[in-house]
Amino acid sequence: MENIKISQNEVNHVAHLARLEFGEQEKEKFTSQLNDILRYMDKLSEVDTAGVEPMTHAIAQKNAFRMDEVVGSLPPELALANAPESRGGCFQVPKVIE
Amino acid sequence: MEFEPVIGLEIHAQLLTDTKIFCGCSAKFGAAPNTHTCPVCLGMPGVLPVLNRKVLEFMIKMALATNCAVNRECNFARKNYFYPDLPKGYQISQYALPPAEHGWVDVEFDGKQKRIGITRIHMEEDAGKLMHDEHNPASYVDLNRTGVPLIEIVSEPDIRSAEEAAAYLRRLHEILVYLEICDGNMEEGSFRCDANISLRPRGTEPFGTRAELKNMNSFRNVQRALEYEIKRQQYVLEGGGQVVQETRLWDDTAGVTHSMRGKEEAHDYRYFPDPDLVPIVIDDAWIEEVRKAQPELPLEKRERFMREYQIPAYDAGVLTTSRALADYYEEVVRLCGEPKIAANWVMGDILRFLNEEKRDIRECPIAPASLAGMIRLIQEGTISGKMAKEVSEAMYKSGKTPQAIIEEKGLVQITDEGALTKTISEIIGKNPTQVEQYRAGKDKVFGFFVGQAMKATQGKANPQMINDLLKKMLAG
Amino acid sequence: MELYELTIHELQDKLRTGETSSAEITASVFGRIDAVEKDIHAYITLMRETALAEATRADEAIRKGEIGALTGIPIALKDICCTKDVRTTCGSRILHNFIPPYDATVVEKLRAAGAVLTGKTNMDEFAMGSSTESSFFGATRNPWDLTRIPGGSSGGSSAAVAAGECIASLGSDTGGSIRQPAALCGVVGLKPTYGRVSRFGLIAFASSLDQIGPFTKDVEDCAILMNVIAGYDPRESTSVPEDVPDYRQFLRRGIEGWTVGIPKEYFIDGIDPEVEAAVRETIRVVEKAGAKCIEVSLPHTEYCLAVYYIVAPAEACSNLARYDGVKYGFRSEEGRDLMEMYKKSRAAGFGAEVKRRIMIGTYALSSGYYDAYYKKASQVRALIKRDFDEAFAKCDVILTPTTPTPAFRIGEKTGDPMQMYLSDIFTISTNLAGIPGISVPCGFTAAGLPIGVQFLAGHFQEGRLIQFASAYEKEAHLEKRRPRCHGI
User: Which residues of chain B lie closer than 8 angstroms to A14, CB-CB?
Assistant: First the structure.
């Protein structure tokens, strides 16, 4: 039995989490490609990582702070200049049902 | 079957820093839409966050004030989800290792005292504001609030009633306001509360299924919502049903909670350490520094007032409702040495004047020195208590000192025995009928003479002296 | 020789003596662009008018004697660096119309140094790729053979330098995106230490791996550019407050007595024989220059690709969540409600490779998989870094091929993502460990395609790299060739 890492259902779920959508053909191709890639990742299980701290930063830094001083904001026209849709000084989106 | 509620509260408090948590935009409330934004808090391509040191300082203050253990190292994590008020598509928060844990506060309610545990406190950024169009299928996003610093305070599920919950909320609220790190305004959203509540048969250990309550925008609403939800869950369980794990919104007008079921999905936030931020390391020296600068907290202050000033719990409570009021009171006491009298004046006239104009003690036109001065003048007998009422009102309206006012109004109390004796003699001379009536045993007539004496001295005579002299001189 | 063919330092000599002007240099570069750009397609956006104005200002400054580090020199920028008031697309449809209201820190630094900005260069979409074929704006062609790719993701910046369409350029490198195209286009490309050059204004792909670096015609120009762009930036929390030396002082110092580590894991089957031969020749050259080569081992090399293709997509899927059609960029007209707007905008706005990586990253971070993928990869990453720490205890620099093959043909690897990923095997480890790396031309294949050799050093040892690379450059006496740039 082929080593399926991710089913089409899981692909649907992940796509939803990532706010993406695919056509049927695209989805099939993606699922197959993703499986290839994820199978390759299995290599990592060969490595003994007992007691190894996960590394997020290659250079160990700490306490990068700024002072609590107001620095000018953008004029609202500039904040909104790239907005696909705006109204009344706000970004406009399709109505959000809560 | 008797059920007991198990309640935990999650509070989000907006911090009173000048700037946002990760950028230099103003964090002030109420500006026109999108006028306090920059590429960083707008989540534009290529921007990066840098932590406002003051947020961490305020975080440590709250941790110490709630008896938490401060973790010496912590980091930020990304909480990933999509929403229009979340420009980056993730919120920078803290997940695995919070900066503060395992704290507690003591709360009072119904004459009882109880300790409520605090699971954790962490820092995060606020989201923007979403507004909905009534008539069109559109919503609008104002990102001013994105990036305003928040601390999230999570309580242990130690709370057992709606009343207890309100008491806990009030205690946290007063601590935050006392520390001057949050203005505690629930209506404006700088102090928010969500609740987790489940029921279990009394005397058992395992937790029942819980519901999350949101949209409670006042202390009263938190209490009402919890009271309602307790009843609702009880009804479900007594009917043999199961409580559904879901989020419910409090509907203030209808007085009920509504399920958000169907509109909400289980979120997979995919937390991971934010690679754009570096770990925070807090050393002992910094904690000591913050501890030394920590103000006296409300509970300690109340206990000290009762002890030092010998005033009852109620008075201590009123006088410590704000740090400014407590400081005002203490300054008055320091200058006049009469804690009980000062308490009466502050709680009485001063607060009444201020409340009438909806003003805060910090705007009080009567300086502590003036109030103290007036109290001393009463004690010395220079003015009577009654005259003092006039003086205090005049001080409030004009901001002048008591000395200036009594001079202006010529309000010095007459205590010259000779002068008073002369006045009373005259009155006795002019009213032989009443004198005879009094001497005949009609005690009530005494009041007539007091009235006449007051009239003759325009109310300035020392009442005690008038009394004594009248008694002596009328005796014949 | 034409002005556009000269290096920064050569042009600076001529500017100082008054032999030429920035206006002339800029005109020469734009003349070259007009001649070859239709074949090369290195640029997404040209900044001709502002460039000419900047050149005029530069000439005035030069007349007054106010000569900055780059005054009057035409430099191109990868379209991943935000430029104020100039469209910045990141090679993507989703940002096809985005005009930043701010400059990236490196752009501010270039401007302050007096550079003339020629335009924004082509790139793989969101820096995800090794060939520049995934750009929404079409592929860039390798100036040495127009049927072949220039490498990626900074293909445009690399090709522009090779073709004379700018004197030097900036690119970005997350898994080799400067070094690999530098090798394939026959130019010098350097990836600095993580935290050396500010990332503020660099559109993020993988935050813990990204760095901006220079493409130049020789090592001296590389030092000149590094002097300008390196340095602490308080706007970036991961920026390192390490002093910036004058990198020019490391030029021409020689490498007598240096120890060079040759990692055995980097000389494997599957390397093109001509590439291997050229790199072995490099070893001989540096030995002649006085260095001693020893074998070292980087035992976790075979896991680098797997680690990279978990960590990078995980960070990327989060970094790319902001492209939601709300505040800027492409928004689909077809979305009837919010969810549709999100999905249709992102599905239409992103290309296939970007979507693939977003999917991998989202999966790796999702509930139930975090420990097995992201956490595990982060642990192996620590071991990869440890390998380098241990190796650098034994040697001064490490020498490897930059790429396993010379430039492949356009379309050759687009069918199989894994094949494309394998072209990064020699460069990826550098980003994971955060160390600096430089690719320097070391020869040509028989067919005339450039080959690059890579040198690596420890954290903040860019000076050492420049010293080594310049010594190699001098000793190698490589024949100067010019790419064809025309016809197929």
Answer: none
